[in-house]
Design brief:
about 600 residues, alpha/beta, TIM Barrel, Rossmann fold, Helicase, Ruva Protein, domain 3, eight-stranded parallel β-sheet, five-stranded parallel β-sheet, 25 helices, about 10% strand
């Protein structure tokens, strides 16, 4: 079994505590005294605890499974930013500090036994009076801390000669046991352990010195193997004299749970007492990591935005425009698959830009050969001959198939229109890397296939076959209605192309015009948007297209309307504000709304300038 306890700390006068609990903390539960049997019952089963220095950590430790708490002045100093060894300096009244934090933050707030870390260095201290106060306030037991065991040389000799050293600590533990309190004895070597064995403490803890871990950790005297061997020798000697005590280990090289388990097993101890390893070290790491994450959040966001801009520019170079996360993800995946030279399936609704993306994949892959485009929805009767090659009865000559061309890219549009027999032949050719011929022989397949299909297969068999052909090399282009952020860059790209083609003045779209575009369902996707823009620019002399320019069109496409989402409305309002340099009157006129409505919408979307 192993045992873990907890250390905490604080400051105040014992004489006023009962009054303070009633006046300042009326909601606080009265502390519960624990009999010795409660602690001794831990023996024979694993117990886990933690060492902390503040009330919130005490509660967290109990929730984590701590079985008892140890309130020490070192714990309080740790949460104040000082290393544990400062507890041995004359920086304050240790007992007052422990009484303060114990009664204010620990007792009555946790359902576990709480030990009081008692300091007996002060020769004026009346030990019996201190023990009576400790018991009255509700502490379950007492521990000898801060202790003379952490001193050596002439300093240790001096306090021992004055009668305020380790001998006085063992006497304090003896009186505590007689007063009905649980006892917790610290020692660092066999001689001190045997002296404690005469007291028969509830808990005996062999301390290896101050912890080595964390920013404020000190270099250890022992490594883990030496600590385990030393502890086994001391604990064996102690148990011969005090077999009923729980024997624990603490400090030194033990920093992690794995460290503890190694020494615990080697020493055949009953458990572990955690101090800095439970509160200071995890706290330092957690706060450092958390602060660093906030500090670098802007950097990673900037990097993400910069990457998105690079991807958008990359796509634009191939004739593809967009800025939505869905679109950019599809472009990134297409770029990766292009460089990997994989056969690719591009899925999407009609008009979504599948063929354009397929051509872009060829360009990004830097294939040596050309592009051959076959449409399975059109070339139904002679598709196999066009794909694999064969005798063409209409010409009386042999036709060279698209897959016979070396290092080319064959784009198969609407591959889901092929019959299952042709798909099976194609799947076999891709799997074997050899294309069939009309003579029954096969030849190496060097061409790359990029196919397009609907978002979902028409049958389960078709879905399985396409998955078998392309494995996971599939790209889904979302419909335009699901990526409203892309309407603006796509529109700008189309208008630029129209202006270049007609060698006229550049055509612009006002915010009200974009409001119309955002409200449209776009069942025909990018192809429908392109057709609409071409039609409108031809039918009007104005170089600025507004809501009326589009609303005047006839036909089912224009009547297909939907409610504009908040995100879409925010985009076109912000675009108009930027265009008019946040001049409210001009922006409101451009949008076709009142200034008051504009102000309300700016407030709604958090827009300011």
């Amino acid at each position: 079994m192993y045992f873990v306890s907890i250390a905490v700390g604080g400051a105040s006068l014992a004489s006023s505590f009962a009054f303070r609990r009633q006046t300042h903390q009326p909601h606080k539960k009265e502390p519960v005294m624990y009999p010795a049997a409660e602690i001794r019952a831990y023996k024979g089963r694993p117990v886990v605890g933690a060492a902390i220095g503040i009330g919130i950590a005490a509660k967290a430790a109990v929730r984590g499974g701590a079985d008892f708490l140890l309130v020490l002045n070192a714990g309080r100093l740790r949460v104040m930013g000082a290393p544990s060894p400062v507890c041995m300096l004359a920086v304050g009244d240790s007992n007052k500090s422990v009484l303060e934090v114990g009664t204010r933050e620990i007792l009555g707030h946790v359902s576990r036994p709480v030990f009081f870390g008692a300091c007996v260095f002060d020769p004026r201290l009346e030990i019996d009076a201190l023990l009576a106060t400790i018991k009255q306030l509700g502490f379950s037991g007492v521990a000898n801390f801060p202790s003379a065991i952490h001193l050596d040389g002439s300093c240790r000799e001096m306090i021992e000669r004055r009668g305020i050293g380790f001998a006085r600590e063992t006497e304090m533990l003896r009186r505590a046991r007689e007063a009905g309190l649980l006892t917790f004895g610290y020692a660092t070597n066999k001689a001190e352990a045997l002296a404690l064995a005469d007291v028969n403490p509830t808990v005996f803890c062999l301390n290896f010195g101050w912890n080595a871990g964390g920013v404020q950790g000190l270099g250890g005297t022992y490594d883990l193997d030496e600590a385990g061997e030393r502890a086994r020798s001391v604990i064996q000697a102690f148990r011969r004299l005090s077999p009923n005590s729980i024997c624990l280990i603490e400090g030194g090289p033990i920093v992690t749970a794995d460290d503890m388990f190694q020494v615990y097993i080697d020493a055949r101890a009953d458990g572990y007492v955690g101090g800095s390893t439970i509160d200071r070290v995890p706290f330092e790491e957690s706060v450092t990591q958390s602060t660093s994450s906030f500090k670098t959040a802007g950097y990673f966001r900037y990097e993400s935005e910069a990457r998105d801009r690079r991807v958008a520019a990359f796509a634009l170079g191939a004739g593809l425009a967009g800025q939505s996360r869905a679109f950019l993800s599809a472009i990134e995946r297409a770029s990766y698959l292009a460089s990997a030279r994989q056969h690719v399936l591009v899925r999407g609704e009609p008009g979504s830009g599948k063929t354009t993306l397929a051509r872009a994949i060829h360009g990004w892959s830097k294939q040596d050969g050309g592009i051959y485009v076959l449409d399975a929805a059109i070339h139904t009767s002679d598709f196999q001959m066009r794909l694999f090659g064969g005798f063409d009865s209409s010409t009386g000559k042999r036709r060279i198939g698209a897959l016979e061309m070396p290092a080319c890219t064959t784009i198969i549009k609407n591959i889901d229109c092929l019959d299952m027999g042709t798909l099976a032949i194609l799947q076999s050719a891709i799997a074997s890397g050899r294309a069939p011929s009309e003579t029954g022989e096969t030849r190496p397949l060097t061409a790359r296939i990029v196919a397009t299909a609907q978002p979902a297969a028409s049958t389960e068999g078709m879905a399985r076959t396409l998955d078998g052909i392309f494995n996971a090399c599939t790209i889904l282009l979302p419909p335009l209605r699901e990526r409203a952020e892309d309407i603006v860059p796509i529109t700008q790209k189309i208008l630029e192309a129209l202006s270049e083609r007609r060698k006229g003045d550049a055509v612009q779209i006002s915010a009200s015009g974009y409001r119309f575009l955002f409200s449209h369902e776009w069942p025909g996707n990018v192809a429908e948007l392109r057709a609409m823009l071409e039609d409108v620019t031809l039918s009007t002399k104005s170089r600025t297209l507004d809501y009326a320019s589009f609303a005047g069109r006839q036909g089912p496409a224009v009547r297909s309307k939907r409610k504009v989402s908040d995100r879409e409305e925010q985009i076109w309002i912000l675009a108009s504000l930027k265009r008019h340099r946040f001049r409210k009157s001009e922006t409101a006129e451009d949008l076709g709304i009142s200034r008051r409505t504009l102000y309300n919408k700016m407030r709604k979307y958090g827009l300011s300038g």
